[in-house]
Write a structure and sequence with these properties.
The protein is of the alpha/beta class. The longest helix is centred in the C-terminal third of the chain and has 23 residues. The protein is globular, with a radius of gyration of 16 Å. The chain starts with a strand and ends with a helix. It binds flavin mononucleotide. The site of flavin mononucleotide (FMN) has 23 residues, from helix 1, strand 3, strand 5, strand 7 and helix 5.
Length: 168
């Protein structure tokens, strides 16, 4: 494994990348920097934040590197269903893991800020209804809180599954 290459907007993917790179004792680079530091076809782990279902930066990275695993970071619920959906939508052939990152609206600009505002307006009332009926699991409660107040779900523990996969 040569490096962790990551694309982050508000910093959550960057934090996961930092934690993972440390565990694996490999360097970490955003794509522009990686170009000058590691060769084409290097073996990497790619991490990108999810924007409207797209894993930012994945397509370019897949053309340049041998990707051992893709880690997509979003604000949603972790699980196989979301991972399958992301694999299909992004044409990912490599193993894919989805991690819950976070939301900090004050760091979002322009179109991104607008999209989240609209999403918040539709989703918060729905999630609040479900919360009243005690129908929300931990990840969804986390997402509701994230949308309302912002939040950060990044913990080193969430990398456990990925570490197990990489040890195999
Ligand atoms: C414009 C926009 C669209 C987003 N779309 C999705 C999405 O489709 N699925 C998802 O799980 N998270 C989505 N998110 C949430 C981000 O992926 C989440 O906040 C993530 O932690 C951002 O990572 P970063 O802090 O490294 O930029 C979206 C966020 C923004 C700002």
């Amino acid at each position: 494994m040569d490096a962790v290459v990551y694309v982050s907007n508000a910093g959550h993917t960057g934090k996961y990348a930092e934690l993972l790179a440390k565990k694996l004792s490999v360097p970490l680079y955003p794509p522009d920097e990686a170009k000058g530091k590691i060769k084409k076809n290097s073996e990497i782990i790619f991490m990108g934040w999810v924007r409207k279902g797209k894993i930012t930066g994945y397509k370019k990275a897949a053309k340049r590197y041998r990707i051992k695993a893709v880690i997509a970071v979003g604000m949603g619920i972790e699980g196989e269903a979301v991972e399958e959906g992301l694999k299909i939508k992004n044409h990912v052939k490599e193993p894919l893991f989805y991690l819950q990152g976070g939301m900090n609206q004050s760091l979002l600009k322009g179109r991104d800020a607008m999209i989240i505002k609209q999403y918040k307006n539709t989703m918060v009332p729905r999630l609040e209804e479900a919360a009243k009926a005690m129908e929300l699991d931990e990840a969804k409660r986390n997402m509701l809180k994230m949308l309302k107040d912002g939040g950060n779900a990044v913990t080193v523990d969430r990398l456990q599954r990925i570490m197990e996969f990489l040890r195999k």
